[in-house]
Amino acid sequence: MITGQNYIGNKQSAKGNKTYKTFNPQLNIENESIFVEATSEEINEAVHLASEAFKTYRKVSGEKKALFLNTIADEILALDEALIQTFCMESGLPEGRAKGERGRTVFQLRSFADLVKEGSWVEASIDTAQPEREPLPKPDLRKLLIPIGPVVVFGASNFPLAYSTAGGDTAAALAAGCPVIVKSHPMHAGTGELVASAIIKAAEKTGMPNGVFSNLNSSGIDVGTQLVKHPDVKAVGFTGSIRGGRALYDLASQRQEPIPVFAEMGSINPVIILPNALKNGSEDLAKTYAGSITLGTGQFCTNPGLLLAIKSDTLTQFISALANEIVKIEPTCMLHPNIIGAYESNKSKMVSQKGLTIVSDFENNVKTNFARQAITTVDGETFLENTHLHQEVFGPFSMVVQCEDTNQLELIISKLEGQLTGTLIADDEATNYPKLISALQNRVGRIIYNGVPTGVEVCPSMVHGGPYPASTDSRFTAVGINSIKRWVRPFSYQDWPNELLPDELKNENPLDISRLVNNKQTQNKIS
Amino acid sequence: MITGQNYIGNKQSAKGNKTYKTFNPQLNIENESIFVEATSEEINEAVHLASEAFKTYRKVSGEKKALFLNTIADEILALDEALIQTFCMESGLPEGRAKGERGRTVFQLRSFADLVKEGSWVEASIDTAQPEREPLPKPDLRKLLIPIGPVVVFGASNFPLAYSTAGGDTAAALAAGCPVIVKSHPMHAGTGELVASAIIKAAEKTGMPNGVFSNLNSSGIDVGTQLVKHPDVKAVGFTGSIRGGRALYDLASQRQEPIPVFAEMGSINPVIILPNALKNGSEDLAKTYAGSITLGTGQFCTNPGLLLAIKSDTLTQFISALANEIVKIEPTCMLHPNIIGAYESNKSKMVSQKGLTIVSDFENNVKTNFARQAITTVDGETFLENTHLHQEVFGPFSMVVQCEDTNQLELIISKLEGQLTGTLIADDEATNYPKLISALQNRVGRIIYNGVPTGVEVCPSMVHGGPYPASTDSRFTAVGINSIKRWVRPFSYQDWPNELLPDELKNENPLDISRLVNNKQTQNKIS
Are B142 and A457 a contacting pair at CB < 8 A? Predict the structure, then answer.
C-alpha cells in the first residue's frame, strides 16, 4: 500500500505540509495517492542516519552485501502486480515495458551481488616490504578500494525502475558500501515508495544498519538542493536533463568540500550513414530506425536524434522511406503532460529554425499526452551554422543532416557536443573513413556498427557515459559493474599489522580473491 | 644552455615582453637567466598543436610510447651536471636531494614505460555476442580505456623534478596517450626548461607528433588561467597550495564544458600516538619525528604537522624530547624568499593563537632564507574550538595536541579536514582502538603504522591523494601507475568489425595482454 510518506531510514515519516500527486498520462487524470514532501528536518535526519550507518556499513562483508542486494531484488519481485500497476499508472508506459524494466533492475542488483560476493572488484594490490633495499628500505604497502560515503541518488523520469529508486546508481552505491538517500522522482513517487519499501524490508531482514537507505519525496528542487549541499553527503548520482544535471554539478562544485557528481544527461546520439550502406535500397534501414526513434515514445537517453549522411539520390530515397515508416507507427503516450508539453514546444521551436524541413509529421488526431513523431531534414551548412539544431528534442523526433561531402560530415561530427553513443551504418567501406571514425570516437562513449543506439546492454564491457554534456565525468560509466567505481576511492595501508588489515589484504587471502602482488596478478597467499 | 624561451611544441618561442628571473635562496641572489612569459598567442598555439597531436598520439602503440618515455628518462640523465646545478641554484636544495629526485623522476618515467609496453593497463573487456538470446539478442561489446585529450600540468614548487615538468602528472598523461602542456613553475623555470628540452629531444628522436609536449613560462596566474579555460584542454593536474588548487578547480568547473582537475594540495598529516607507545621511553620516537618534521626543510606534502595523543606524564616527556631533538638539527634553506616569508608569517599567526604554547623555537641566528623549526603544543579542547589551528604551516613546524581522553582524540580526528596520510604510533594496543582507526581512515588516503608519513614510495599499492582538501578528487592517486587513470576514459565498441578494432580488443589478442573475456580474466584469443 502506498502511504505517501518518506522513508527516513527504516521509519516512515510525513512531517511536512507540502503535498503532491502523480499523474496518469494514459487516462489524463491525477492518481489518488497524496505524497508528502520531505521537510528540512527530515532531510537532515536522513543524512545523519546515513552518516552513522556508514560507520558500520562500510565494513560489511561482500557476502552480506550480496545477501542484502539479492534480498532487495526478491522483495521487488514480491511487490508483484502492485508494482507493475503503479509503474504503468504513473508513467503511461505499457505493462511489457514495466516487466522488462523490473527484470533489468533485478538483474542489475544480482550482478552487483555477484560482484561483491566474489570480491576481487576492490582491486587489492600488495607490495611487500624490502627492509634491505638501498639507499632506503621499502615499506610494505597494500591498497584496496573503499566506499566514499553517503551517496544521494536522483531518480530518472524515463526509467521509473532501472534508473531510479533501486536502479543502477543505488545498486552500485550499496554494493560499494555507501548508504544511499534517494530523492524520489515526483512523476513516479508511488513506484518509488513501493521500491523503497522493498529496500527497507531487505535491509531489516539482512540486518543492515538503520539509515543505509532513505527515500525522500520531493516535488520541486528544494529537497535535492539541500541534499547536495549537505556536508555529510559525499557523492551524487543523477540521470536527467542537462539543465538539471548541470545545476547539481554546480552546487556540488561550489561546496566548501566539493564532491563528485555523476550526471548522465542529454544526448542526440549521432548516426553516420556511409554512402554504400544505401546502395542496395534503404527500406530495411528506414524501418529499423523508425523503430529506434519511436522506442519508448523516443524517451530513451540513447534515442537517435541525428542522422548524418552525404547528399545523394539514395539518401533522398532513405529520407522518404523513413518518413513513410515513421507515420506507420501508432503514436504512444509520453510520461507526463509536462514531458509532452516540452516535446511539442521544443519540436515547434526546432522546426521554426531557418532551413529545416519537416519531412514527416504525424498529423492525424492523437490522444492527449500521446506524442506525434516527426522526421526533419536540413543541409550540412545550415546545421553547422545554427547550433540550436544540435540540441536534443526529447521524444520521437529525429533530424537527417544532408552533408556536401566527407569533409563536411567530418567537420560536423567534430563540432558536436559530447554524446553517449555514435553509430556507423556502413557496407564494406568503413576502412576508408579512419578520420571520420576517429572524430566520432572523440565525441562519444560508445560506438555501434550497423545497429541502433537504443538498447543498453548491462555487462562489464558497456560504457554508458561520454564527454560532457553526455555526462559530467567521462571517466566513469553509469551502466555495468564498473559503475561501482564512481562511489569508491583507493586507500593504502603502510606497514600495517596483518591482523588489523581488512580480509582483502591479509597475507593468507582468506577471501581467495585475485590480487596484484608485487606486480603479478594472483590468488596466492603471501608466505 | 638555458635560453629563457618557451617550447611551443618542438619550437622555441619568446614573443612576449613580460620577463622574470629565478632566485638562489642559498646565496640570496637572483639567478642570471631571463625567462620570457608565454603570450596569449603562444598559449593558443601550444593548445592548438596539442589538439592536433592528440589525433595521432592517442593511437600510438604502447611500445612506441614506452620508447618515448624511456628516451625522456635518458635525455634527462644526459643533462647531467647542468640539470643538478640548476636544480640546486633554483631551489636551495642540496645536491643529494637533486640527484635523488632525478632518480625518482627517471624511475617514474620507466615505470610508466613498462606499464604501457606490457599493455594490460587499458582494462580491456570483451563480452561476445549471443545472437540467439531471448527475448533480445546480445550484441558484441568490447571496452578499453582511451586517453581523455590534452592535459595541462602545473609543476610543484617543492619538487622541481619529480612533480614538475616531467614529473608524475606528465609521465602518467604521456603514458595514457594525452599530449601535455606544462605551465612551468616560476621558481624553477631553468630546471623546467632543461627538462622540457629533454622531452622535446625525446619526442623528435622517437617520431612523436609536434605538440605532444609544450612548456610555457609564467610568473603569475594569467598563463594558467588561460590554459584551464581553453575549450581544447581536457584535464588539469596540479600540485601545490589549497588556494591555488581550488582556484583552478573553480575555473575548470565553471567552464561551459567542465573538465576534471586533479589537484594534490595541503595536508597536515595527523600522527596519533597511543599511550603504550610511550611507555618504554620516547627518545627514539622524538628523534625520528624531529627528522621527519625537518626533512626537506619541512617542505614535503606528507610532512607531519600534527601529533595527537592523550595527556600523560610520558607525553610531556615526549614533547620535551621532541623539542630537544628538533633544535639539534641545523636549520636548512627554504625554496624561495616568498616561501620562507609565508612560513614565518604563518608560524607567527599560529603561535599567536590563544592557548598555543611554543615548546621549542630555533632561536639562534639563522642564515637568510633558512627556516627556524618549531614545535608547539595545545590542549584538545582549544584545538577543537579553533579551526585556525587545523591549518597547514608549510615548513618545519609541528603541533602536539594533548587530548583529555580517547573520546576527545577520536572527536578531533573526525573533525579534521581530509588528509593525504594518517599515522598510528602504537605498541601492542591498536586492536583496542577500532573506532579511532576507523575515524582516521575516513579522513585520509593512506595510513601508516609505526612509521613516518614522509617518503612516498612509487609503487602500485601507493595512494597519494585523499578526501578534500588533500586532493580535489579522492577517487584517484597522484603517485604510482594507477595515477594514469586520471587521464583516461572507458570507451566501448558494439558489434564493431574485428579488423577495425584496436589491437587490444581484436579476437586474436595480438598484444597478448590480459583481458576480461565474458567475465573471466585471460590472455587467451577469442576463437
Answer: no
